From TrEMBL:
Keywords: Transferase, Tricarboxylic acid cycle. Pfam families: Citrate_synt (PF00285). The active site is at H256, D307. GO terms for biological process: carbohydrate metabolic process; tricarboxylic acid cycle. It comes from Paenibacillus bovis. It catalyses: oxaloacetate + acetyl-CoA + H2O = citrate + CoA + H(+). Pathway: Carbohydrate metabolism; tricarboxylic acid cycle; isocitrate from oxaloacetate: step 1/2. Belongs to the citrate synthase family. InterPro entries: 2-MeCitrate/Citrate_synth_II, Citrate_synth-like_lrg_a-sub, Citrate_synth-like_sm_a-sub, Citrate_synthase, Citrate_synthase_AS, Citrate_synthase_bac-typ, Citrate_synthase_sf. GO terms for cellular component: cytosol. One of its GO terms (molecular function) is citrate synthase activity. This is Citrate synthase.
């Protein structure tokens, strides 16, 4: 038995949700380039869960269901208020989602019907939790969700307490579409491993949030922004990046296990970053990002991934850095939930083997003889 480090190239599941073939990402057979420009996040979430784009009635019903469940249990809000103010927002989100199961009487109901309802509840509640955590950490009261508006609109409203501009809603909605699913990425795999023991959906989503938090996965978007802040100005980019590269420090937001010729999502976020910079009359973050890309791609051949330009996009939307990865989760919960439903439909426990490389033939000695 020989282990493949990081399971590179290992095909660990069959799935009909999303695919990456020759650098092209599709959700249920629809090219991400098509969906990013034309579809709303709600349409994409429905597509991931139910395998087809919704008609108008189905979309209206989804909106009603999302409205119904976006309101958080009071007990959860009270609990979140007890979290330390300097909480890591992803750690807090992981705890809050785990706690949410305690307030759902159907949490352990494993019927398809109950699980489909949990998908909607989680999709509705996750943005409310992230916005509430963001406000609570700043000493503000959470804002109740609006009814009849998109998730992007509602999230920006709940975070700021003000009606967002159309351009901000459109940009966030497109970012949510681009992050919704990505084949067997680390957090989705974590979710599938957890529910393959026939554990409940909240456990699967909690596992996924834990995996997304790391800087080699979703946490990279916050690390990119930290880097941009450290660099500070366009004239410092060259020396900063060259120093990092010569010290063999990874540049966050670059490289990918699957894409070697570029991440198809990155170009949409780059365009959005430029457009938001032009609108704000401040292209500094965009220009710094482009310069970093030129250097890293030029010297290492590494291309930006989905996290690289999302950092400048979220900053220009007025979102604080420590909410970037939770926003990734607002979108990716749609994909996690679709994968959990798929796993339940054709389940077998996921239990691979390990190549043992430790010592052999050890002899036990009592503690007094060691
Ligand atoms: N900066 C500098 N060098 C890099 C980078 C980077 N961002 N990424 C990879 N490399 C180098 C590695 O050091 C390694 O070089 P070596 O062969 O000389 O040792 C080589 O490229 C291969 O890299 P691995 O880390 O082995 O690639 P792996 O497939 O295991 O990891 C990963 C992929 C985690 C995305 C990696 O590229 C990375 O750490 N990137 C930075 C973090 C990041 O942006 N993560 C977000 C990924 S997208 C997502 O999850 C949403």
């Amino acid at each position: 038995m020989t282990a493949t480090k990081g399971l590179e190239g290992v095909v660990a599941a069959s799935s009909s949700i999303s695919s990456i073939v020759d650098g092209v990402l599709t959700y249920r057979g629809y090219d991400i380039d098509d969906l990013a420009v034309n579809a709303s996040f709600e349409e994409v979430a429905y597509l991931l869960w139910f395998g087809k784009l919704p008609n108008q009635n189905e979309l209206d019903q989804l909106q009603k269901d999302l409205d119904k469940y976006a309101v958080l249990p009071d007990a959860l809000i009270e609990q979140m208020k007890l979290y330390p103010k300097d909480m890591n927002r992803m750690a807090a989100l992981r705890s809050a989602i785990s706690a949410l199961a305690l307030y759902d009487e159907q949490a352990d109901d494993m019927s398809r019907e109950a699980n489909e309802l949990k998908v909607i509840k989680l999709q509705a509640q996750l943005p409310s939790i992230v916005a509430a955590l963001g406000r609570i950490a700043e000493g503000q009261e959470p804002v109740a969700p609006l009814q009849g508006v998109s998730i992007a609109h509602n999230f920006l409203y709940m975070l700021t307490g003000e009606q967002p501009e159309d351009t901000a809603i459109k940009a966030l909605d497109q970012a949510l579409v681009l992050h919704a699913d990505h084949e067997l990425n680390a957090s989705t795999f974590a979710a599938r491993v957890t529910v393959a023991t026939l554990s409940d959906m909240y456990s699967g989503i909690t596992s996924a949030i834990g995996a997304l938090k790391g800087p080699l996965h979703g946490g990279a978007n916050e690390a990119v922004m930290k880097m941009l802040e450290e660099i500070g100005s366009e004239d410092r980019v060259e020396s900063y990046i060259q120093e990092q590269l010569s010290n063999k420090v990874k540049i966050m937001g670059f490289g990918h296990r699957v894409y070697k010729n570029g991440d198809p999502r990155a170009k949409h976020l780059q365009k959005m970053s430029r457009e938001l910079g032009e609108m704000n009359n401040d292209l500094s973050l965009y220009n710094m990002s482009v310069q970093i890309e030129e250097i890293v791609t030029g010297s290492k051949g590494l291309k930006p991934n989905v996290d690289f330009y999302s950092a400048s996009v979220y900053t220009m939307l007025g979102i604080p850095r420590n909410l970037f990865t939770p926003i990734f989760a607002i979108s990716r919960v749609s994909g996690w939930a679709a994968h959990i439903l798929e796993q339940y439909e054709n389940n077998r426990i996921i239990r691979p083997r390990a190549e043992y490389v430790g010592p052999n033939n050890q002899e036990y000695r009592p503690v007094t003889e060691r």
